[in-house]
Amino acid sequence: MKILQVKIFSPEDKELRKVDFNEDGLSIIYGDVEKPNNENETSNSIGKTVLLRIINVILGGNNSGQDTIHGLKNYKIKACVKYKGKEYNVELEIGNSKNYTINGQKMNLTKYKEFFCIDRSSFSKQIMLEKRKGLISTVSTNATKDDYTVVLNLLYLNKIQDIFRKIKKNQDEIEIIGKFKNNFKEDISTLEKEEFNLEMKKKQVDDELNELNKKIQNIKISDNIEEIVQDRADLDQKVKNIAEKIKLNDISISKYKETLEDSEKNDISLKEVEAIYEKAQIQIPDMIKRKLVEVEDFYKGLIEDKKDIYQTQIKNLKNSNDTMQKEISELKIKLDNLSEIVSENDLFREAIKIYNKKTNEKMEIDSKISEIKGKLTQISNTQNLKSDIDVLYTQLFKEHEDATTIINKYKEFVYNVVNRIYGEEKRNPYLSINISNSARKYKTMPVKIDLSIDGDDGEGISAVKFLLFDLLIFNYNNDIEFLIEDSSCFEGIDRRQIKNILIEMEKISNDKKKQLIVTLNKYLISNVDDLEEKIVLKLNENNTLLNINF
Questions:
Q1: Domain that holds residue 443
Q2: Whether the predicted model's global pTM rises above the 0.90 cut
Q3: Based on the number of CB atoms within 10 Å of its own CB, is 549 exposed (0-12), middle (13-18) or buried (19 or more)?
Q4: Structural domains counted in the chain
Q5: Would you say 59 and 1 are in contact if contact means Cβ atoms under 8 Å apart?
């Protein structure tokens, strides 16, 4: 993957800068600035490193949160990149890892890296955006196992890398066991006691689960429980309705009985009327007596008719109540049956709920027992791990011996490049890719890579060593098509050596058809005229990358 062109746009889509890069060979981003008088000051305020960071984002670098390029959030980038012989138009937004396009196809950063098969762990060994900290690790003096793994792969020492990782895995396990032993100084009996108590608790839970299982099997359950619950509710309402009707009939019967009793009390006979007249010493005329007899007969007939009607109504209402009471009794039998079914299902659900709770409890106990067993196994497994490491070291020595030819080729490359950089100054460079063989082989890195150059241990020698290692990968690895170096990587190196290093870099990039992009400040090189045709962008304090301060 190579960067052929970069265009930078403001958030308002105004084009601010366009830079074209050489597909093969050297491309220089030149800073026409002098070295600051104060060592704490920086000359990187004109945008050279910012442009490299933009290139890094185009090459799949992180592009959100704290990794957003300071001051450029929401700026838009359009680039032309070449991948597997084909050119692609790429667009992205600084600070937004979800907004990428390749030839108009939208995607996120993950899909973007998948499209171009970007392996950032490998890319990071050929993209230097700041001053190096170490030979193998760019960010620390102490390289990690991942740093070594990537470098060994890039140098095609794959078999050594495979065994290296296996040894490191065992070493890491031994370290974990050591930390574990320190945390459990009470010795193994503490864990064994805990394991025993958990096993007893597990047995108790198993017994409870067996009892619950038997109970569940004996519970009658119904498939149509929802329908049964509805039927039960309907029956219950029907019983209530009938009971209400019986209650109303009882009220009517009471009223009829009261009326009959009242009629008995208000019944006045002819003799009682005559007695009233006699008491008043008034003689009743015969015609009046005949009329009173007729009235008495009519009234008696009316009363008797009403009594018959009321008694008939009372009888009918009582018969109706008896019928309804019988119906209620029958309905209550059905209602009790349905209630029993619902109750059984409630019991079943409650039993299942308890069963599930106990099952989860058992799973937690099993998990704790497994964890303790694992710890007990680890504690007793240290010697086995060490034995495995011993075997792996034997294999590692064998693979290292088989790789002697390619390793010697790397050593000769470094030796010859150093001689060309320093000319007649004898620096006796030596690249060491060796197997650790010490009493600390169960802790230390299985492989040790180092590069030494005679001379003082100052900033210049260290910077040269780091650049030499980058050149080694640049020259021999066929998978990464670029090398990117920030001007800070050249700090402390004599101008003559910088010029010679650039010559070596450019020769490799031309021979291997690779892309080399570097930023350089004016004070780092003695004669810029020799490199004028390689400068793709020249910046200074009056012509910064985007005419803003970074």
A1: 2-157+403-539
A2: no
A3: exposed
A4: 2
A5: yes
